[in-house]
Write a structure and sequence with these properties.
The complex is a heterodimer of chains A (about 110) and B (about 120). Chain A has about 110 residues and is mostly beta strands. Chain A has no helices and 12 strands. Classes of the chains: A mainly beta (about 110), B mainly beta (about 120). Chains A and B meet through strand 5, strand 6 and strand 10 of A and strand 5, strand 9 and strand 10 of B.
C-alpha cells in the first residue's frame, strides 16, 4: 500500500529564515510525489512534483523539495520564509497501481512570524 | 476564468435532508474527483470519474451518489444527511492524457457542509 506521513502537525519559523516541512513516503515501486498548499478557506494549490530525474525539484513561490530515496523522504524547503507562506501544506503520493488515485498526508501547518 | 468551481460555498442543513453540491471545470480535463476534508483537515478521496465513467469508489456510504453528466461536471448528491457528514467537500480535476503519472490535480474552493 502507498502512503505518506507528515510527522509535524505544525512548524514555526521566523520570517527570513529557511523553512523545512517534512514528508516521508511508503511506496512499493517508483514514487510519484506532490506538494500542495492550502490557504485558509481555499482549495489546495499545486506547488511541485517529483516524477523522475533530478532529486531537487523547484516549484511555485520559491519552494523546492528534495527527493531522497534512501531516506524515503520528500521534504519541502524554502531558503527564506515569508509571512504570506503561512498556510497548511500537504504531501501526496500517487497510487502506482491506479494513477488516478492519490494519498494525502495529514497536513502541516506552517506559521511564519514577522 | 475560474478553473474548478463549486456551488454552493456554504451549505447548512438539518439532519435527514437531501442536498447536492455541484462542480464544474473549464480546464478540459478528463478526470474529476470528490474529496472530503474533516475537521482535522484530513483529506480523503471519495469518488473519481474519467470521461463520465466512475473509476474510483472508496468506502463511502451509499447515501452519497456522484453523477457526471459530462466530463466538465461532477455533482455529489447526499441523501439522509447525518451529523458526521459535516465537512468540507472538495472537487478536483486532472488531465487524463499520458503520461498520466505526471498529472497533478486542480482543486475547487470547497463546499463547507454543516449538518445540524
Amino acid at each position: 500500500a502507498q502512503s505518506v506521513a507528515q510527522p509535524e502537525d505544525q512548524v514555526n519559523v521566523a520570517e527570513g529564515n529557511p523553512l523545512t516541512v517534512k514528508c516521508t513516503y511508503s511506496v512499493s515501486g517508483n514514487p510519484y510525489l506532490f506538494w500542495y498548499v492550502q490557504y485558509p478557506n481555499r482549495g489546495l494549490q499545486f506547488l511541485l512534483k517529483y516524477i523522475t530525474g533530478d532529486n531537487l525539484v523547484k516549484g511555485s513561490y520559491g519552494f523546492e523539495a528534495e527527493f531522497n530515496k534512501s531516506q524515503t523522504s520528500f521534504h519541502l524547503k524554502k531558503p527564506s520564509a515569508l509571512v504570506s507562506d503561512s498556510a497548511l501544506y500537504f504531501c501526496a503520493v500517487r497510487d502506482i497501481r491506479n494513477f488516478n488515485k492519490f494519498y494525502f498526508g495529514s497536513g502541516t501547518k506552517l506559521n511564519v512570524k514577522p | 476564468d475560474t478553473a474548478v468551481s463549486q456551488t454552493p460555498k456554504y451549505l447548512v442543513t438539518q439532519m435527514g435532508n437531501d442536498k447536492s453540491i455541484k462542480c464544474e471545470q473549464n480546464l478540459g480535463h478528463d478526470t474529476m474527483y470528490w474529496y472530503k476534508q474533516d475537521s482535522k483537515k484530513f483529506l480523503k478521496i471519495m469518488f473519481s470519474y474519467n470521461n463520465k465513467e466512475l473509476i474510483i469508489n472508496e468506502t463511502v456510504p451509499n447515501r452519497f451518489s456522484p453523477k457526471s453528466p459530462d466530463k466538465a461536471h461532477l455533482n455529489l448528491h447526499i441523501n439522509s444527511l447525518e451529523l458526521g457528514d459535516s465537512a468540507v467537500y472538495f472537487c478536483a480535476s486532472s488531465p487524463g492524457g499520458p503520461p498520466l503519472r505526471n498529472n497533478e490535480q486542480f482543486f475547487g474552493p470547497g463546499t463547507r457542509l454543516t449538518v445540524l
